[in-house]
């Protein structure tokens, strides 16, 4: 490991995405950067944490209890404090690729998204619907919302930007 320098050109506080990109860009430009965070995890307010960290930060449990143990191994869980979605061909993706930050990131297709419903001991976790069947079974919505969600998901599945027949009157969303 390199020795810790006595002087730096820049000190970056925090390890959120913005701070990490800034630190990386400055380093690539030849600046001597000290990058530190007061937290015991990376990512700042947008971190991904394991179950134990999540419970310790937000949980409501008695001292001495370890409620996270009933969910299996800690490393099987990564909970985004702020879910991060990137469009695969979006501008942010292009910026991340051009700054070589992608060497430190892993991109995955989203397998599912979940939300907490309720608080305290009555809290439950529910899957955000991603197909018409899940929309109809979801506890997150009433019957009318379920039908609208089902229709919306079906519309997305058949939508083709080049085929106005699939737009169903929503073509103005893509005109700039």
Protein traits:
Rab GDP dissociation inhibitor, two-stranded antiparallel sheet, Guanine Nucleotide Dissociation Inhibitor, domain 1, FAD/NAD(P)-binding domain, two-stranded parallel ribbon, Rab GDP-dissociation inhibitor activity, 176 residues, 6 strands, alpha+beta, FAD/NAD-bd_sf, flat, 28% helix, 3 domains, GDP_dissociation_inhibitor, 5 helices
Supply the number of helical segments. 5
Q: Tally the beta strands.
A: 6
Please mark out the parts with pLDDT under 50 across 5 or more consecutive residues, or reply none. Answer: none
By secondary-structure content and strand pairing, the structural class works out as alpha+beta
CATH-wise, what's the superfamily of the largest domain? FAD/NAD(P)-binding domain
The helix/strand order is EHEEHEHEEHH
Q: Which class of the largest domain in CATH terms?
A: Alpha Beta
Helix content: 25-40%
Major beta sheet, specifics? 2 strands, parallel
* Overall shape: flat
What is the count of distinct domains? 3
Radius of gyration: 22 Å
């Amino acid at each position: 490991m390199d020795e810790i320098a006595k002087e730096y050109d820049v000190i970056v506080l925090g390890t959120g995405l913005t701070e990490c990109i800034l630190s990386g860009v400055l380093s690539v430009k030849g600046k001597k950067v000290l990058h530190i965070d007061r937290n015991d995890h990376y990512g700042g307010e947008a971190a991904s944490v394991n179950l134990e960290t999540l419970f310790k930060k937000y949980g409501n449990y008695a001292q001495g209890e370890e409620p996270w143990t009933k969910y299996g191994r800690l490393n099987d869980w990564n909970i985004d404090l702020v879910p991060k979605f990137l469009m695969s061909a979006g501008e942010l993706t292009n910026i991340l690729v051009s700054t070589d930050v992608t060497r430190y990131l892993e991109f995955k297709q989203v397998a599912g998204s979940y939300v907490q419903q309720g608080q305290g001991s009555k809290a439950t976790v529910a899957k955000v619907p991603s197909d018409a069947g899940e929309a109809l079974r979801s506890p997150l919505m009433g019957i009318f919302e379920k039908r609208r969600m089902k229709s919306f998901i079906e519309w997305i599945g058949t939508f083709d930007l080049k085929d106005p027949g699939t737009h169903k009157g929503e073509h103005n969303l893509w005109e700039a």
